[in-house]
Automatic annotation (TrEMBL):
The chain crosses the membrane at residues 6-26, 38-60, 80-102, 122-145, 165-187. Keywords: Membrane, Transmembrane, Transmembrane helix. Its main location: membrane. It is found in: Membrane. This is G-protein coupled receptors family 1 profile domain-containing protein. SUPFAM superfamilies: Family A G protein-coupled receptor-like. Residues 18-232 form the G-protein coupled receptors family 1 profile domain. InterPro entries: GPCR-Ligand_Int, GPCR_Rhodpsn_7TM. GO terms for cellular component: membrane.
C-alpha cells in the first residue's frame, strides 16, 4: 500500500511533467512541419493518458479506494483506454523511427513519404486498428473477480490468454523488432550518403542550419524515448 501510495504518485507526477514538456516543445513553430514531431507529440499525448489511467488507480488503492476496479463500467473503460494508449505510445515511436528512415534515404521518392499528411493518416489508422483489436475488453474484463491478481481482470482463461498475448505481441515484440530494424536501416542510409563539398554561404544557409539542428534534436529525442520503451 505504501508503494502504491507514494511510488505510483511520484511516477504520476514526473511522467505528467515530462510528457507535458515534450508536448510543449514539439508544438513550437519550427517543429510543426516535421512528421517526426507529429509522431512524438502523439506518443507523449497517449503516454500521458496511459499514465493517468494506470497510476491514478494505484494511488487510490494506496488509500483503500478500489472503486475504479470494482465498478463494472469503470473497469471496462479504464482497461480499454490502457490497452489502446499503451499500444499507440509504442507505435508512434515506431512511426517516428520509420520517418527518420524515410528522411535519410537516398531516393527522393522515399523521402517524399515523410510528410505531415502521411503521419496523420498513419496515426489515425493505428488508432482505429487498436480500438478494433482491444474492443473485446468490453466483454472480457469484469470488476471484483475473486482469486485474481487485480480486481479488474479477464473473466475466463481465453480472454486472459488473448489479452496477454495481444499486449506482448503488439506492445513489446513487434515494436521492438520494428525499432531495431528501421534503426539499423537508418544508420546504413546515413553511412551511404555522399559527403558534399563545402560551398559558400547563401541567403538560405541560416534556414538550412536551423533545419539540420531541428532534425538532430528530433533524432536525439526519438532515441531517448525508444530507450525508455525498451526499459518498459
Amino acid at each position: 500500500m505504501q508503494i502504491n501510495r507514494h511510488g505510483a504518485a511520484l511516477l504520476l507526477l514526473f511522467g505528467t511533467i515530462g510528457n507535458l514538456l515534450n508536448i510543449l516543445v514539439l508544438k513550437e513553430h519550427s517543429f510543426q512541419k516535421k512528421p517526426c514531431a507529429v509522431y512524438l507529440s502523439w506518443s507523449s499525448i497517449t503516454s500521458l493518458i496511459f499514465i493517468w489511467s494506470g497510476f491514478l488507480t494505484r494511488v487510490l488503492q494506496g488509500y483503500s479506494v478500489n472503486w475504479p476496479n470494482e465498478n463494472q463500467v469503470a473497469c471496462k473503460v479504464r482497461q480499454f483506454i490502457l490497452n489502446v494508449t499503451w499500444a499507440m505510445g509504442a507505435w508512434c515511436l515506431v512511426g517516428a523511427n520509420i520517418d527518420r528512415y524515410f528522411c535519410s534515404h537516398s531516393s527522393i521518392t522515399v523521402r517524399q513519404l515523410s510528410t505531415n499528411r502521411m503521419a496523420k493518416r498513419v496515426i489515425l489508422g493505428m488508432f482505429i486498428f487498436f480500438c478494433l483489436l482491444f474492443v473485446e475488453v468490453i466483454y472480457c474484463f469484469e470488476g471484483s473477480i475473486p482469486n485474481v491478481p487485480v480486481l479488474c481482470y479477464g473473466r475466463n482463461i481465453p480472454c486472459r490468454m488473448f489479452n496477454d498475448w495481444a499486449a506482448l505481441l503488439f506492445d513489446i515484440i513487434l515494436p521492438s523488432i520494428c525499432l531495431a530494424t528501421f534503426g539499423l536501416m537508418t544508420i546504413r542510409n546515413i553511412r551511404m550518403r555522399v559527403v558534399q563539398p563545402v560551398r559558400k554561404p547563401t541567403t538560405n544557409s541560416g534556414s538550412r542550419l536551423l533545419t539540420r539542428f531541428n532534425d538532430r534534436n528530433l533524432t536525439r529525442m526519438l532515441l531517448i524515448q525508444v530507450s525508455d520503451l525498451f526499459q518498459v
